[in-house]
Amino acid sequence: MNVVISNAENSVTAKITGPITETDGDSLKENFENLYSSSATNVLLDLTMVPIITSTGIGKIIVLFRRLKSQGRDLVINGIHENLYAMFTSINLDKMLTIKEVHS
């Protein structure tokens, strides 16, 4: 897994590439800390290049969502691999998170 964070005016984007496995939990948490500390109102996750994710990764995304929401900030999945989208819909994460652009 690789994470690249970029900033724009009022948004910050984390582009994640590669599978997110159990061993990536600490790295994902560290990268999400950069998103928390940003002053951007909009936080975007690009999961287009993430073909699989374990429960650890899903848990980290849920924590990110809840923490940002408590700060009055938005989390948007701004691109998601179709495999992940199928998983997210099966566990109703698509009802909690704003998801745009499903990619094959």
CATH class: Alpha Beta
CATH topology: Transcription Regulator spoIIAA
User: What is the annotated CATH architecture?
Assistant: 2-Layer Sandwich
Helical segment tally? 4
Give the number of domains: 1
Number of strands: 5
**Helix/strand order, N-terminal first:** EEHEHEHHE
Q: Considering the protein shown, what is the CATH homologous superfamily? A: STAS domain
**Average of per-residue pLDDT values:** 94
Strand order of the largest sheet: 1-2-3-4-5
* Fraction in helix: 40-55%
Identify the overall geometry.
globular
- Cα radius of gyration in angstroms: 12 Å
Uncertain residue ranges: none
Notable characteristics:
4 helices; Transcription Regulator spoIIAA; alpha/beta; 104 residues
What features would you describe in this structure?
The chain has a single domain (2-103), classed as 2-Layer Sandwich (Transcription Regulator spoIIAA), CATH 3.30.750.24. It has helices spanning 25-37, 55-70, 82-90, 93-96, and strands spanning 2-7, 11-17, 42-49, 74-81, 98-103. It is of the alpha/beta class. It starts with a strand and ends with a strand.
Q: What is the strand and helix layout of this fold?
A:
Elements: E1 2-7, E2 11-17, H1 25-37, E3 42-49, H2 55-70, E4 74-81, H3 82-90, H4 93-96, E5 98-103
Parallel strand pairs: 2-3, 3-4, 4-5
Antiparallel strand pairs: 1-2
Helix pairs in contact: 1-2
Give a quick precis of the structure.
The chain is α/β, with parallel strands linked by helices and 104 residues long. The chain is built from 4 helices and 5 strands. Strand 1 and strand 2 form a beta hairpin.
